[in-house]
């Protein structure tokens, strides 16, 4: 498919065919959601948007007498401020129709400005303000597999077998100062742990330590701003937008006797019985008519419980894990993201799940937990992977705008990745982004243009776009007689993450080249499927990388590290 044809098709689709609540609106029309507690407020929310309400966060909490808390005078490693903060938030939530405000103050006369907090589940109708001199230390919960820890949780059910019935609404976490950030310490109690017991190295294992400073789930009308997160290459993003699901199979199927192979799954109908098939293996209805796989397979509706109507601004995350970063949307609608800075890792990831055969988010189908109506502006990544990374996997995502992204001594500024669901299973499709626009200044800055040192912490995907000059200088470090990713130095995130030099400002791997998109079919059986167009006609792309003159690289520019053509992308 040619570029002009594809862009015209997607722009028309975005104008005339995009559901008001993309993904979940289509699910609501397919399934009877009444009485389930899942998605019953979708139409109400869409109606408000039609009537002129802001699609992003609106402050609905007003409090003339906020409750102020102060840090413990005798701060020790045993201090725990969680319960007194939770009690204050509950009081604020119950004040009146305008909700209430809680402020974490710095010490009045100097001294300790640290709070130690375990998981804090935010109630509806509250605003938590934190003085910029305050540091919140995550307590952590170190187990054999590392530390799995939340700090602030918005709309996450405490029990996956008893999900909350109502969204958590009207929640804000912010600094008391309009420009200065308060600090979340996700490092002190989050030591790097390679392997289960830390007895391995970054060359042979990954860092299993996990920290989730802020998780947003079944929530509506939320705002997060004015925060600096000090990370320790922990295996998660700083601010995560994820469905509040039951974590069971995203597609209703009987896996008994399949040995975990999704191609052998027996799909169940609404009555719990196997779906009927014809002699050629197609799903059919009770009259023998063929039903497309994506319509026949019943999905787990809990994956539609995603956050809506939110704003995330003025966030800095330091020492991020290479494969994660500052902000990631795993699923959500009408989200505004602005002024994000990541040191290492990724600035903003727009990606539902991981696309593996056992990925329950993607097994939930193309619409549940899709990502729609999102704006991302002013993102900077330093010595990291990329500023913004868009990966569709098996989802149909709509109406995404990205503008003004800067990569400093990093792999690249923007990546749009081709969809490649593998291994192929009939509950998956090759997903896509529809009406995806990249505009404004997209820059790659190299502070030391003559240095040959690899400083960008990247993942495997970017190694296929390494500059020829850097590739020619690689040596067989592991002595297996060939040049592969095993010969690259690893960074602190572990064995799947590498150090290399910057590439180009933009990598549009979702297009074959500048003039041809490729096969945009969603059919996972087509080996060349999974491409989609990107409108970057309004982007001003610049680079200060002398090793690579190209401003934009495409799928056909990918190469193996031995210089041969890559069949991976």
From TrEMBL:
Keyword Aminoacyl-tRNA synthetase annotated: no
Keywords tagged on the record: Signal
Keyword Signal attached: yes
Region forming the signal peptide: 1-22
UniProt name for this protein: Iota-carrageenase
UniProt organism field: Microbulbifer thermotolerans
């Amino acid at each position: 498919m040619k570029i002009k044809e594809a862009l015209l098709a997607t722009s028309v689709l975005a104008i005339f065919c995009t559901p008001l609540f993309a993904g979940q609106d289509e699910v609501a029309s397919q399934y009877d959601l009444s009485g389930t507690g899942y998605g019953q407020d979708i139409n109400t929310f869409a109606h408000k948007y039609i009537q002129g309400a802001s699609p992003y966060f609106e402050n609905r909490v007003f409090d003339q007498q906020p409750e102020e808390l102060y840090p413990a005078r005798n701060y020790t490693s045993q201090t725990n401020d969680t319960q007194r903060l939770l009690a204050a938030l509950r009081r604020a939530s119950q004040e009146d129709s305008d909700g209430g405000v809680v402020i974490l103050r710095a010490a009045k006369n100097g001294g300790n400005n640290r709070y130690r907090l375990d998981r804090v589940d935010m109630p509806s109708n509250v605003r938590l303000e934190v003085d910029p001199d305050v540091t919140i230390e995550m307590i952590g919960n170190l187990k054999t597999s590392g530390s799995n820890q939340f700090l602030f949780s918005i709309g996450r059910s405490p029990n996956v077998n008893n999900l909350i019935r109502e969204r958590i609404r009207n929640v804000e976490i912010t600094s008391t100062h309009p420009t200065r950030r308060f600090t979340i310490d996700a490092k002190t109690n989050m030591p790097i742990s390679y392997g289960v017991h830390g007895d391995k190295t970054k060359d042979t294992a990954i860092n299993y330590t996990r920290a989730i400073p802020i998780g947003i789930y079944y929530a509506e009308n939320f705002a997060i701003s004015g925060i600096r997160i000090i990370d320790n290459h922990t295996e998660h993003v700083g601010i995560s937008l994820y469905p509040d699901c039951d974590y069971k199979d995203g597609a209703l199927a009987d896996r008994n006797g399949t040995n975990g192979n999704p191609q052998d799954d027996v799909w169940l109908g609404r009555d719990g019985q196997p779906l009927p098939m014809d002699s050629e293996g197609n799903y059919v209805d009770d009259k023998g008519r063929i039903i497309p796989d994506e319509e026949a397979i019943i999905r787990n509706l809990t994956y539609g419980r995603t956050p809506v109507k939110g704003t995330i601004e003025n966030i800095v995350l330091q020492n991020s894990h290479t494969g994660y970063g500052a902000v990631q949307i795993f699923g959500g609608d009408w989200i505004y993201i602005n002024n994000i800075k990541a040191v290492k890792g990724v600035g903003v990831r727009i990606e539902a799940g991981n696309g593996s055969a056992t990925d329950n988010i993607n097994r939930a189908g193309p619409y549940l937990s899709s990502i729609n109506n999102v704006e991302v502006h002013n993102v900077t990544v330093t010595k990291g992977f990329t500023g913004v990374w868009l990966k569709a996997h098996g989802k149909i995502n709509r109406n995404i705008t990205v503008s003004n992204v800067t990569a400093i001594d990093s792999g690249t500024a923007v990546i749009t990745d081709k969809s490649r669901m593998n291994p192929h299973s009939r509950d998956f499709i090759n997903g896509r982004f529809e009406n995806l626009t990249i505009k404004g200044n997209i820059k790659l800055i190299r502070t030391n243009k003559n240095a040959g040192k690899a400083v960008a912490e990247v993942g495997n995907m970017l190694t296929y776009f390494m500059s020829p000059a850097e590739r020619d200088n690689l040596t067989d470090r592991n002595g297996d007689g060939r040049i592969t990713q095993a010969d690259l130095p690893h960074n602190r995130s572990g064995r799947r993450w590498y150090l290399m030099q910057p590439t180009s400002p933009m990598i549009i791997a979702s297009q074959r080249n500048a003039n041809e998109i490729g096969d945009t079919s969603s059919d996972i059986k087509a080996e060349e499927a999974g491409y989609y167009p990107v409108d970057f006609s309004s982007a001003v792309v610049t680079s200060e990388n002398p090793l690579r003159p190209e401003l934009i690289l495409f799928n056909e520019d990918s190469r193996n590290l031995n210089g041969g053509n890559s069949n991976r992308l």
